[in-house]
Amino acid sequence: xxxxxxxxxxxxxxxxxxxxxxxxxxxxxxxxxxxxxxxxxxxxxxxxxxxxxxxxxxxxxxxxxxxxxxxxxxxxxxxxxxxxxxxxxxxxxxxxxxxxxxxxxxxxxxxxxxxxxxxxxxxxxxxxxxxxxxxxxxxxxxxxxxxxxxxxxxxxxxxxxxxxxxxxxxxxxxxxxxxxxxxxxxxxxxxxxxxxxxxxxxxxxxxxxxxxxxxxxxxxxxxxxxxxxxxxxxxxxxxxxxxxxxxxxxxxxxxxxxxxxxxxxxxxxxxxxxxxxxxxxxxxxxxxxxxxxxxxxxxxxxxxxxxxxxxxxxxxxxxxxxxxxxxxxxxxxxxxxxxxxxxxxxxxxxxxxxxxxxxxxxxxxxxxxxxxxxxxxxxxxxxxxxxxxxxxxxxxxxxxxxxxxxxxxxxxxxxxxxxxxxxxxxxxxxxxx
Length: 433
What we know:
Radius of gyration: 25 Å
Structural class: mainly alpha
Largest sheet: 2 strands, antiparallel
Order of helices and strands: HHHHHHHHEHEHHHHHHHHHHHHHH
């Protein structure tokens, strides 16, 4: 039965999923958004600094909180305008996939995105109070709220760039002209088309990109914060991995724009002193579901290292334990292997689902703070959970309890796996061959 199911997956799903994972537009979106993660992670520490996990009567806490507005300025210039950076990254990646100049593609994508904004003119009577003059850009949609508009316009801009390049509808310079100068002139035609086209759509036709896209996306964002959505995303990630398909790449590229909106909603509320609204931003998955990597494989690593009798299982566990502590589990996925392994696939799927239910309920009823910080994913679980929840010690307890639960879920399956490996090791070499 299982063999037939495996064959069905390989014949009918493996190909389409591999195609989806390698599809150039999805890959460009994934790479463009992932390129913003260093900014998001580093800027998140300014959030911790502005609201430190310290008693409120301490002098250092009072000093930092009283200067929170200034401390958060680097955060506002990174996290609050992340869609601007993502637009450049998407344009760069997609252009390179078409063998076009990545720098030109990134600039064109950024230009197209900015042309969806209508600058606001500050009234003359407000100039002195505002400390500025003329027009300003509204910040709200430069952050994660504008991510889907950034994706759409970046792809549109690069496709215009590609069409003008392939049709030779461009200015071509002599070979003697320096390459950087030649590329600039070649980009004149798509730049003209993008500026005229986007400008006409936004300013003359009056198309409100952000309002219209938000109406389409808002139900998806709301749904992404529900328990069924958490379970679906978790299941699909481990299901694809079980058949050797990079589940995190496929599912993450589709879900990450939603996760970023949920995270920014939390950080904005925290900076404003409001109630934090969302549960299932990406750090929630990282520190309470994918502990040790996809499949909550920290439990598998611990059991292999300390509870197996087979030489292979013990050595693999001791080798893979340290990477698993830092959430790197490829040695386990491909070493045991988990891929196409009927013994280890069930706990690989079940453990993160159970962890997700417990963590979601614990967070929803207030036993643990909601995540507000995108801590580096290579931190050990308890430390990452502590930082991601703004310094909540209860997150450490929850993370440790979920690790223990993962060990318990993997235990009976590892016993069977270890017994099989031990029997193989006791067979004569010629019978293995």
